[in-house]
Amino acid sequence: MPYTIGLHSAAAAFLSAGFATQFSVAIVICLVIVLVTAYHVEDGDEAPQSLPGPPFLSIFQLMNNTVIVLSGASARRAFFNAKGFDLTEGFKILSGAIPMVRGVTSGLQTKRISVIHKRLAAVQKNVPLSDLIPAILEDSRRVLESYGTSGTFDPFEKIYELMFQTTVRCLSSAEIADDAALVARLKTLYDRLDAGTTPATVLFPWLPTPAMIKKLWATKEIYDIVVRAIEAREQSGISKNDTLQMLVDSGDEKLVIVGFIMGLLIAGARATGTTASWMITFLGGHADFRQKAKTEVESLLGIYSDATTPSLSSRLAEIPLEVWESQAPVLDAIIRETLRLGQPHAAMRRNLGPEVYINDKLIPSGAYIIYRTFSTFPEPPQLGNKDNQYASTAFSDVHLDPTIYPDPWRFDPSRKEVESTANLPLPYVGWGVGKTTCLGTRLAKVELKLTVALFLLGFDHVLVDKNGNVPLAPPETKLERHPSMPTAGRIVLRQVHAHISRAVNYADHLPFSLFLV
């Protein structure tokens, strides 16, 4: 375990100290950093425009790191295709949600990164992915049944928790996935990493602020959980059909196995959890597409499952992998449209060289690059509170362009896919494009289809406002306060077979709720 000796004692002492002591130490260290690192480099004609203000107030100049934000067609094409723009290096500094342990999830040699990517590809081969289908559905059945027949829940918590469970099932071990309390603990620890990710903890990861100490402690707990699972498997000598066994049987270094599980758990859960939450939300406002998706799944059940199979999850598990992937065009279209409107993540890279020019602006070697835009396109109609401010999606310069997607804020899975051309490069980047598409796309799509299919067959839902009236418009995405979820509102569910309503709270900015009837 690559933790400095005595670090835990130092961390405990710092956390137990009074706020005045903690604040004073932090201020002194910050002042030293500012005095040492603050300087200003004159911008040339080839340099991207800098943020205004003194250099020590601009986080894009602090600690000698250059961060460049790109948008627009030519920049998009260059960003996703430039050979020197490295995804792993980009996330190492700019993303604080992934637990960083040097040699495990950060500071990895190219060879280790290549091994992790290779193992992720192995998880998504036909046989292992097919073997995961019954387990994903059984986890989903158990979690969905836990909602009970009445009550309230937050879909951006509950659906996310469901997807976290299925991601743990797919990317770790049976011992962890079978222990609901342990899965919940892991989610809490990863959430703590998220909550503790501030500009200060990203720019000064060594600064012993309370937030950073908590992040460090959460990282250690996650590390310990994963290591215990690996050691328990090795000591038992019992082989199981799961991802951990595949990693062990491949003869990989323990650090590679730990890094695979620690890093990919959160990367997978964040993406699929957010997307699934938005899918359920959007479908609640569009009864036509909800019914089309439900009819599609029922049709697959009629063809490929045995009507005498006792449980719905077991019947869905009888549908072959290739059918889920090739014969569910409605679900495919819903996923695609959800990512167009609800894509929460920025794309991050680091230029490992050589230096390149984009639109006559220099992107030097070593610079960090972000492709995330907030468009100038018209915002959606305001719902409820006149003061609501709606931001665009992460890739709004293309995904909300009305010349590409007419009425761009409208959720419409029936839209025709737009082909990339010389004049319109990369009109859709929901899964990434070019040389860096999402490496877990196949697994993510299967998880989304299975869990949403089970939900749709168990519930009918329709949007209503707080007074029980159907609103004039469905929910719109808003990327403030947290990049992946709304900040309040209400969903009311009614279980089909029980006809008992249950209320669900989520996202303050959404002046409506979902009512499942």
UniProtKB/TrEMBL annotation:
<keyword id="KW-0503">Monooxygenase</keyword>
<keyword id="KW-0479">Metal-binding</keyword>
<dbReference type="InterPro" id="IPR017972">
    <property type="entry name" value="Cyt_P450_CS"/>
</dbReference>
<keyword id="KW-0808">Transferase</keyword>
<keyword id="KW-0472">Membrane</keyword>
<dbReference type="GO" id="GO:0016125">
    <property type="term" value="P:sterol metabolic process"/>
</dbReference>
<feature type="transmembrane region" description="Helical">
    <location>
        <begin position="12"/>
        <end position="36"/>
    </location>
</feature>
<dbReference type="GO" id="GO:0005506">
    <property type="term" value="F:iron ion binding"/>
</dbReference>
<dbReference type="GO" id="GO:0008168">
    <property type="term" value="F:methyltransferase activity"/>
</dbReference>
<protein>
    <submittedName>
        <fullName>Lanosterol 14-alpha demethylase</fullName>
    </submittedName>
</protein>
<dbReference type="Pfam" id="PF00067">
    <property type="entry name" value="p450"/>
</dbReference>
<dbReference type="InterPro" id="IPR036396">
    <property type="entry name" value="Cyt_P450_sf"/>
</dbReference>
<keyword id="KW-1133">Transmembrane helix</keyword>
<keyword id="KW-0489">Methyltransferase</keyword>
<dbReference type="GO" id="GO:0032259">
    <property type="term" value="P:methylation"/>
</dbReference>
<comment type="similarity">
    <text>Belongs to the cytochrome P450 family.</text>
</comment>
<feature type="binding site" description="axial binding residue">
    <location>
        <position position="438"/>
    </location>
    <ligand>
        <name>heme</name>
    </ligand>
</feature>
<feature type="transmembrane region" description="Helical">
    <location>
        <begin position="56"/>
        <end position="75"/>
    </location>
</feature>
<keyword id="KW-0408">Iron</keyword>
<keyword id="KW-0812">Transmembrane</keyword>
<keyword id="KW-0560">Oxidoreductase</keyword>
<dbReference type="GO" id="GO:0020037">
    <property type="term" value="F:heme binding"/>
</dbReference>
<dbReference type="GO" id="GO:0016705">
    <property type="term" value="F:oxidoreductase activity, acting on paired donors, with incorporation or reduction of molecular oxygen"/>
</dbReference>
<dbReference type="InterPro" id="IPR002403">
    <property type="entry name" value="Cyt_P450_E_grp-IV"/>
</dbReference>
<dbReference type="GO" id="GO:0004497">
    <property type="term" value="F:monooxygenase activity"/>
</dbReference>
<keyword id="KW-0349">Heme</keyword>
<dbReference type="InterPro" id="IPR001128">
    <property type="entry name" value="Cyt_P450"/>
</dbReference>
<feature type="transmembrane region" description="Helical">
    <location>
        <begin position="255"/>
        <end position="280"/>
    </location>
</feature>
